[in-house]
Automatic annotation (TrEMBL):
Domain (HNH nuclease): residue spans on this chain: 71-120
Pfam families: HNH (PF01844)
Native source organism of the sequence: Streptomyces pathocidini
Name of the protein in question: HNH endonuclease
Keywords from the UniProt entry: Endonuclease, Hydrolase, Nuclease
Keyword Hydrolase included in the entry's annotation: yes
Nuclease recorded as keyword: yes
Sample GO molecular function, one term: endonuclease activity
Amino acid sequence: MRETLVLNASFEPLATVTLRRAVVLVMQDKAVVEQAHPGLRIRAAAVELPVPRVIRLCRYVRVPFRRRASWSRRGVLVRDRHRCVYCGRRATTVDHVVPRSHGGGDTWLNTVAACAEDNHRKADRTPEQAGMRLLSKPFEPTPADSMLLALGASGREGLPEWLAARAGSDRVSA
Ligand SMILES: [Zn+2]
């Protein structure tokens, strides 16, 4: 299920929560809907709400540390803009640079977007063993990138202007 992005009262991205949790926060007047999925409505108790994509807390919450993006397959594809790191064509799979059988983990730095063909060709080998080169190095998304990942957006399009501006900045954490 799609998650909802939670902004602090100061508009800084804090976390993502399930849609259910987001609706509860809005119903309890702890948050307001900043952006909703167009055309979608959700029924909760006796009221009908737009389906929140972004909510903002009514009260400021102090966050003592920078949040890191949690790894996901979808996140890797979005980070790499659905481009195969080996050939640049459209990627639909996630490749472990160091295969899991060689101890490679599900981490941002060990996973890349790959087309099914290259993923199959590389198989259970490292790029060196397979004689394949990475066109770009995997990287850990910044907190700003995480916001886009949370929204499932591969770019700033589709976001309100003020939010897109925040997504373009590295200084998003409190
Ligand atoms: Zn490829």
